[in-house]
Structure formats: structure tokens, C-alpha cells
Amino acid sequence: MSDIAVNAPKTSQLLMGNEAIARGALEAGVGVATAYPGNPSSEIIGTLAQVAKELEICVEWSINEKVALEVAAAASFANIRALSAMKQNGLNVALDFLANLNLTGVSRGLVLVVCDDPGGISSTNEQDSRHVAKVLDLPLLEPATFQEAKDMTKWAFELSEEIANICLIRSVTRISHARGNVVLGELPLRENHARFDTSRKPYASIATATPPAFHQRLHRDLSRIREIYEESPFNWYVGPQDPELLIITCGSGWLYSKEAVEILSRQESVGILKIGTTWPLPKAFISRHMLRTKKILVIEEIDAFLETNLKELSVDLAPGRSLTFYGKASGHLNPFGEINPDIVIHAIADIVKVNYVSKEVDYQKKCQRMIEENIFRRELQFCAGCPHRTTFWAIKDALKMDGRDGFVVGDIGCYSMALGSTGFSQIRTVHAMGSGIGIASGLGKLNSFGFDQPVLAVCGDSTFFHAAIPALIDAIHSQSDFLLVVLDNAGTAMTGFQPHPGIDMSATGDASLPIDIEKLCHALGVAVVVTDAYDIKGTTQKFMDLLRIEGKPRVLISRRECNLIRARREKPLYKVQVNPEKCIGEACGCEKFCIRVFKCPGLIWDKNTKKAKIDEAVCSGCGVCVEICSQEAIVRE
Amino acid sequence: MRQEWKDPLNLIITGVGGQGNILISRLIGEAMLEDGYWVTIGETYGASQRGGSVASHVRVSKNTQQGPLTPEGQADVILGLEPVESLRMLVTYGNSKTHVITNIRPIHPMAVAIGEAEYPSLEMIKQGIGELSHQALYLDASEIAIGLGSPLLANMVMAGALIGSGLIPLEGERFEHHLQTSFHKDKLALNLRAFRMGINEIRKPVEVDPKKV
Q1: pLDDT by residue (tens digit) across B32-45?
Q2: Domains in chain B, ordered, with CATH?
Q3: Is B45 within 8 Å of A121 when comparing Cβ atoms?
Q4: Is the pLDDT of residue A363 over 70?
């Protein structure tokens, strides 16, 4: 297995892009690394946390991305190299700080890695983070291979120190979550002593000068960065001297483009200019290549960021010269969703006018028939034994019995899946981390407009700490009428069980001081009740009781450890079976209630006996389904 | 005897979240990297732990780093931990020369479990895979794994089947050596057993039911 802490220069490892980024930071002598977990970025800090003790570095899962970046910046101010990693949504949280940090600058190397998620594979959006570099006048790098993910990260610290400002790296899912060959470099010896230089001018964009003066400095620095980028080894060209078509690409587009040109056998006529330094663009370097062609195809993930900037650059290129751009604006590439090798192949084939079919017609027809007849979608669902299933079951029952058209506003986590039938389609809104509480608080203030529906907000324990607390305080302060349900499953389950401030363990496995959500709520002066999520009847009753209280916020903590975390440590709680004597199958009249409505993947229908059955390969042994069967046919031992 | 291998060789290892196809992809990839290959592993997935389809694209080459996704119609070998998932990969990435090895134990999606969809019969799946591939091999890796004490070992049985089939340039001994450096002692013996049972299973002569002849 890969080991990013090994000091074995020139040896190769099969590293995930995120591991390569982590290794690059280690080779740069990073001292502090921080993040709030979020895919596709989580493994950067996850990997560093595993080697933190051995290499004597400080690694933390911060409460949210803004704090993560502040903690990393503090290290830089005190002469320690630091890195912060986050996903695109997380950048929004950190943006307020970042949009001031760019003006004050930093001291030692500070690198911010943002992992975008084209296609929103594990996200609620697919925003393109690169715009932030342009808006804030900061240098941007985009790795195209796993090796480059490591090498670029290492170099980003040097660039950061050269310009005394933060450097941005933008990765994407297909780099961060894929694996490839990486040749390791040397790990440096640790040398830093942390000290904040009090004789230095303050890190502030006011008082010593005005914000525009700092803004002006940024523009001066951009020119310098551009000059450095002109000679960058992260930019290169492969192809003929004067290509018929010039592909300009960055990030995951490089490997797709290379393969596409090979598949179409167009190496003699199509050239590829691969750019790793995507903001500010190295004008002279790119212009030299653009002048050798008349057609340019830009390949990149999500927005036409590179494409737009290249067009802007081409205006000054050579007056009167006609250049045709192909890409997102021309419709050759999708400006939303992921790109993939086939999209790139077809774009090139269309421009150079060759026919390309990925499959023969007959074969394709057979495939199509097979898709229609035999292939179903696999809907996401709560795992067997998931405590969210039982909490939402109780919510569903309680709201139905309450009968006032109450509803649930959602938040970000595994429990967002309660938008779908696995969570009985209970959730009505999902936006950003903690937004559910703010929305519920807002709804709970509408009573003067005749609003009388009960409102429940659900959020996970990690989300509670990340961004829910200010909204909760707002609600308590204004006595907004809603019920907050904290789905406390003892970890950040969605992203890989990372600890958060409510857990008694740090990122590096050390004991840490847990913040008790219940005590915090007490201290804030809000009524709080705790329930065991597996106790369906008891939890339903508590919901009923809390729904009857009106005119102020209430909190219910539905507590039960994520079953995946528990299963790593212990054997199943019960052996669960369906007693075939008691299950009367289709004669029951319940119409497979346990399977059809409760929808735990551990419960299946036996076609032969026409009765319910436990799938022993899936059942986690939580035993809660025992409460669901009217015939008491499900038994746990 | 030295066989000439297609380059790049595109292997897709597919299954349902939680079946452990990502782990065996990684182990196979690492062992091949040690053998001097450029290895790229990309994944297409709905959700890794939560019942979604998960496929690892393992692309190996002697020449250069490959992209993380296989172009459509370019898979050489599909190793499926679940039968419909094998078919799902085949209809997108397969061609008439593709080899398929699949576990025959279905994992029902929610829609099937609750009766909104039918899981296709094994005969239909076999017919589909047969029509769309050059050669297809079937085994009940889950049954073998349950026999060893845990259905989770099915991934290692399938790794054995793949390497035992001789469809990728990786020797069983090389892979076992890599397992020895990758697993904790307490888990190694069982995983090695599962791996070897996979090799044996795939190398068994095909038994013909005399009643059906």
C-alpha cells in the first residue's frame, strides 16, 4: 500500500491525486495542514493526518473551511509553511477571509487546494472555483497528472513565498480521486521555529494604507507571476510545428486530449498545448503557439474559464488575424457536467472532419436493447442499520399523526438522501451547510402572516458545528418557532468518518476536548431532548411531544453511532431472522410493508417462499425492523 | 513464452458500493506498478458506500500514463462483482472482443426490493453478456466467500479469478507477494485463501450437466 511518509526518493508509488498533493506538501516541508472534510478533497488532509505524528507536523480537521484557512494562514504569519484543502462549496465558506488575505499577503508559503467536482458526483453543485483566482488576483495552478499534482504542490509553496501571497491549486475529481504513477522526491528535514514578527507591518488592508493601495500591489504582483509562468515546466506543447488544430487544455483535459488525438491518429496535424499555470496566463508563451494555427479547441472542466481568458488574450495577438475558437461557446464541449474522453474525441473529430464511432452499429443496437430490458438504476439508499432511516421513520409517523402539514428542511450530509424514498421523501429543501437551520428559523418567524405549519430542521452533528450554531443562536434570540433535529451519528459519515469538535479524538488520533451538543444547547437556553435513534416508538413519541410545544425553538438530538463506524469495531448487535412460521407473506395484507415501506436493504423478498427474508450478506444486525412487523415475524437473538 | 499484450490494456472492475472492488483495483494496480507498468485507476460511481454502482477503470501501459476513464467501447476485460453491474459496464465500454468474468450473486437495488422493478434472470444476463462479449466466465464468488466466513471476501475471490484467468499480465505469485505486504497478519491468511480459491475456481474445467446434453 502507498506510504506518503517514506523517504525514498526516485521510487514510484501508485498515488491518488489527493495523496500526491499531500506528498508534495510534505516534500515542501509543510508544517501545518487543515481542512473541513468534503469530497473530492478529503484524502489530502486524511492522508497527512495519518503521518502527522511520525513527521511531527500539525494536522487538523477544522470546524469549517473558513477556520481551516485562518489556522493555516496563522502558521504562515508565524513562519511555518501551511496548506489548507477544501471542496468548491467549502471555498465559499472560506471566501470572506480569503478576499482579505489576498490584500494583506502572507509570510511563509501558504497553499490553498480546492478540489472541484465536475458533474456534482458528491456535491450539491458543480461550481468552478477558478474564477476566484481571477476575482482575487491570485496565482492559480491546475495539475494534469498525478505526478504533477505532487510536483505542483511542492512548487506552489515556493511561488507563494516569492510573491508573499497565497497560491491556489485547483484540482478536479478525476485527478483527486484517481490514481497514477508518482515518482517521489526527497523529504526535507524540519527546520522551522514558529515566531510572529511583531516588528513587521500589520497584516491588514486598512490603517497603513487604503484597500486600493493593496489592490494595486496585487496587480503589480500578477505581472511578476506572469513572467515566472512564462518559463514554467508545467506548460508544454506536443505536436507538429504548425498544427491544423491546436488544442489548449488544462487539468484532466490533458490526458483525455492526448488519448483522443492518438485514437483519431491525428498526431501529425493536431497539436496540444497543455497549460498548468492557468491564472494569470503566460501571454508570450501562449501567443507563440496561437500564432502557428488558425483553429483552437479549448478543453477544460466545467466553465469556459481558460477559453474566455484565451479569447481575451487573442484580441491583442495580431490585429486582423482570424482565429476560430472551438470549445464550450461553440457547443463542442458541454459547459456543465463532466467532460470525458468520448466528448473530447467527438469534438476533435467534428472539427477535423473525420468519422468516429465508438462501437459498430449492430453492437450498439444490442447494447441499447440490453439497457432498455435489463439495466436498472441503483438509487442511493441509507445503509442497512443506518440510524437516519429510523429517525426519518419516526419523523414521518409523527408528522402524519400531528396532521398540520408539517415538513422538514434539510441540510448537507448522508441524511440529504431523505429527499428520496430511502428517507420516506421527508426533506423539502437542501442548500448549503447549516442553511436548513437558517431557513427553518426564517419560517418560524412567519406566524404573523398566518403561517401555522410545524417546521423541522435536520442537521448532522458535524454540520451542527460547521455552520448551524449562528443560525440556532439567531433562532433562540428571536424565539423562532421550529424543531431542530440533530442527527448525531458520532462523526462526519458522508466523507469518511472524520472527527469533528463533538468527538473526543483529533485528526491525528489524540485525545481532544469534545464539545457536548446537549450542554451547549442548555447553555444557549433552548429546550433540548435526547433520544436513541434505534428506539422508533420512543423517538416518535418525543417528536409528538416536541411538536406540541409552540412559539419557540426546540432541539431533539437523535443519537446513534453510524453503523459503518460501529461495524469496524464490533460484531453485529443481533442475529436477525424472519420466522417463516409467523410471516404470512402475501396473505398478510401488509403488502410487504417491511420491504416496500421501511426499505432496509437487509430485508428482501424470497420469490420461492413468497415471504420476507433477511439478506445475511447485507443485514447489519441492528434489529430495529423487529418493531416494524405487525405479525412479530422478525426476530432478533 | 512471452505474450504480447494490448497497450493500453483496459480493465474495468465493477460492483456495488461496499463490495470492495476499489480495494482489489488498487492492489492489482500497485502490483502492476511494481512490475514496471504505468497504471491509472479512475472510478465511475454513484456512491461509494451506499448501494450505488461503482466501477474502477484500471488502465495499464508500458509506454505512458493513461487517462482516468476508458473511452467507450475500449474495455478489454470486465471483472464484475455483481452480474447486472458487469452488464452495465459492458454496454458502455465493451466491444465484441471484451472478456467478462462475473460473480453471479445479485445485489438487489431498492426498486427491485420494493417490487417496482424486476431483477433480470441469470439466464437473461448470461445471454446479454454472451452476445456482447468475446468470452464470459461465471462463478459464485459470494458463495465461496460466505463459505470462508464472510461475504466481503468475494472481492478477493474475484481477484483470484481474474489473475487465474491469465487475462492480465500479472502473475499470481506477484499478487500474493503484494498482499503479504499490504494486509495485517490477522487478515492475510483468509484473504490469501479467498484469492487462491478464486484461481482454482476459474481454472476448473467446465462441468457439463449430462442431463442437459
Answers
A1: 999 999 999 998 87
A2: 9-204 (3.40.920.10)
A3: yes
A4: yes
Q: Does domain A576-636 have CATH number 3.30.70.20?
A: yes
**Above 60 in pLDDT, residue B207?**
no
Task: Name the residue ranges covered by the structural domains of chain A.
Answer: 12-230, 236-352, 387-567, 576-636
**Nearest 5 degrees, angle CA A50-CA A56-CA A60?**
55
Secondary-structure class of domain A236-352 per CATH: alpha beta
Find chain B residues with C-beta within 8 A of A178's C-beta: 40-43, 68
Closest to B67 (Cβ–Cβ): which among A147, A341, A603?
A341
Q: What value, to the nearest 5°, has the Cα angle with vertex A401 and ends A398 and A403?
A: 110
Per-chain mean pLDDT for chain A: 95
pTM above threshold 0.90:
yes
CA dist., res. A488 & res. A463, Å (int):
10
Give yes or no for a contact between A296 and A325, defined as CB atoms under 8 angstroms apart: yes
Homologous superfamily (CATH) of A387-567 is: Thiamin diphosphate (ThDP)-binding fold, Pyr/PP domains (3.40.50.970)
- Nearest by CB: B41 against A179, A359, A417: A179
CB distance B42–A360 less than 8 Å? no
Lookup: cell for A373: 430490458
Q: What residues of chain B lie within 8 A of the CB of A263, using their CB?
A: 71
Q: Which three cell numbers stand for residue A451?
A: 403561517
Residue of A nearest to B182 (CA): A1
- In words, the CATH class of domain A12-230 is alpha beta
CB pair distance less than 8 Å for B114 and A616: no
- Selected for mutation to probe chain B from A14, A419, A628 (highest B CB count within 10 Å) is A14
Q: Mind listing the pLDDT tens digit for each residue in B72-96? A: 999 999 999 999 999 999 999 999 9
B188 in reach of chain A (CB within 8 A): no
Query: Collapsing DSSP states into helix, strand and coil, what is residue A39?
Result: coil
ipTM of the complex: 0.94
